[in-house]
Amino acid sequence: MAVESNISNQTSQLRVGLGNDIHRLVEGRKLILGGVEIPFEKGLLGHSDADSLTHAICDALLGAASLGDIGTHFSDRDPRWKGADSLILLRHVCELLHDQGWSVVNIDATIMAERPKMMPHLPAMKLKLSATIGIDPLAISLKAKTNEGLDAVGRGEAIAAQAIALLMCDSLRG
């Protein structure tokens, strides 16, 4: 997919993007969120490693830059992405942003899961994500919530994530 720059003739620009992802929990898979393997009896089902947090962040970044979504760039029909580490997908997204003249300012994301407890793993996730994106860990906010027993997440059938990202046109950085 050819992508044209949206910012070539503009001198100042900030963009916000929103991402959302959900994957079913199944036996026989590793649970990976934010690039961190979390000990648990189930993992997330998907074509790649099914890291719903990283996928939501990818979608937020792509959306902010008007570059489509994660499915546009990493189709589940493409065998190259089968079992792929989602941090590789995120790195590729960041390269696309850079090529289009964008820098990531900050990311705010929330994981929704009944189990396992996410709080102990958030610092490691933040470090992996910030290293992959190339931003200060303080520019990433991660939170974890339960769904109080409501819907597929609340019943422990799935883990979801939402993310919002702020991008800045590189020309603003001076």
Reconstruct the topology from this structure.
Blueprint: E1 14-26, E2 31-33, E3 36-38, E4 43-44, H1 52-64, H2 70-73, H3 86-99, E5 102-112, H4 122-133, E6 140-145, H5 151-154, E7 158-169
Helix pairs in contact: 1-3, 3-4
Outline the structure in words.
With 174 residues, the chain is an alpha+beta fold. The chain has a single domain (14-173), classed as 2-C-methyl-D-erythritol 2,4-cyclodiphosphate synthase (60s Ribosomal Protein L30, Chain: A, 2-Layer Sandwich). Helix content is 27%, strand content 29%. The strands form two sheets. A five-stranded mixed beta sheet has the order 4-1-7-5-6. Strands 2-3 form a two-stranded antiparallel ribbon. α1 packs parallel to α3 (86-99) and α3 (86-99) packs parallel to α4 (122-133). The two termini are 30 Å apart.
Describe this protein with a few key phrases.
60s Ribosomal Protein L30, Chain: A; single chain; 174 residues; globular; alpha+beta; 5-stranded mixed β-sheet
